Amino acid sequence: QAPVQIIDGKAAAARVLAEVSAEVQAMKARGVAPALAVILVGQDPASQVYVRNKVLRAEECGIRSLEFRRPAETDEAELLDLIHNLNADPDVHGILVQLPLPDHIDEARVLQAVSPLKDVDGFHAENVGGLSQGREVLTPCTPAGCLRLLQDSCGDLAGKHAVVIGRSNIVGKPMAALLLKAHCSVTVVHSRSANLKDLCRQADIVVAAVGRPRLVDADWLKPGAVVIDVGINRIDEGGRSRLVGDVDFDSAIARAAAITPVPGGVGPMTIAFLMKNTLAAARLQHSDLPAT
Ligand code: NDP
User: How far is residue 183's CA from residue 31's CA, in Å, rounded to a whole number?
Assistant: First the structure.
């Protein structure tokens, strides 16, 4: 078997960000400065890191970023007001509500309040429905980033059998929709699936989005499978805290043709696609601009 290809998500993300930066400059030259509003409610430490990274990355691409930090006690009506104001602001093109929200706020209602044209996370029902119909809509960043990694690594995906492990609205389901759109045969498995490992062994492509450290090892893989590991799990090992994926990397590299590492695989692509979506949202709102 040929040596395994370690898919470099950082390098792939840098290419996406370079494309975005060039297009942002071109848009600015036409008088539109793409802007992303990021809303963070409460003090969740992981969310603070994610928001900081998103804002930094936006600035690096020349996208204006606006941060709205609100205390954990903020009530839903106040948050909805803020979103309505941002929806109405012609200088704001993308709106991102960092999840999770505090328990007293109805997450679904908040996500549904974001204008579908500014919904850079692709979570609004209008965009979810559009994706499932195969339309060009704002699409969740993580699965969009995974698809790009797969296309870079495999070329045409038509006819390949993809197994997606996980059926969340954020990763598993939109991933399955994107793979279907790319003409794969798609199997989605989850915690109630029977014969999980056998199904996985039939896959040309495995996307693991489970949240279980090292669940998938070489025994789950067909020789030559391409493996995308979405999982980010913090574990204690030898008295040290480290991040591992849903795939047992050291075991899987003996069977896989290509695999993403954790960290340095899917993570950087998620933020890169957020920037791409902000640019796409700005285009949706300025469809009168001539194409670049
Ligand atoms: P969720 O917890 O929302 O979904 C997990 C899915 O995995 C569910 O569908 C669940 O099944 C399924 N599942 C759980 N245990 C098993 C099991 N033992 N066997 C088979 N299926 C199982 O997680 P997310 O989709 O939000 O995230 C998944 C992982 O990806 C997490 O580690 C998360 O941190 C990471 N992530 C990484 C991102 C990145 O940028 N790299 C972005 C987003 C997430 P059921 O539906 O039956 O409960």
Answer: 38
Q: Decide the pairing of beta strands 161-165 and 185-189.
A: parallel
- Residues 147, 230: one domain? yes
164: containing domain? 140-267
pLDDT digits (tens, 9 = 90+) for 152-176: 999 999 999 999 999 999 999 999 9
Binding-site residue positions for NADP(+):
166-168, 232
Q: Do the Cβ atoms of 244 and 261 come closer than 8 Å? A: no
Dist CA 259 CA 207 (whole Å): 10
pTM here is 0.97
User: Which domain CATH number covers 255?
Assistant: 3.40.50.720
Counting Cα atoms < 13 Å in the Cβ hemisphere of 248 gives 12
Query: Do 52 and 85 belong together in one domain?
Result: yes
The ipTM assigned to this model is 0.99
Does one domain contain both 54 and 155? no
**Amino acid type, 187:** T
CA of 116 to the centre of ligand 1 (A): 25
Is 24 within a domain? no
Active-site positions read 54, 98, 121
Q: How far is 121 from 174, CA to CA, in rounded Å?
A: 11
CA of 291 to the centre of ligand 1 (A): 38
169 and 211 in one domain? Answer: yes
Answer whether residue 66 is part of any domain: yes
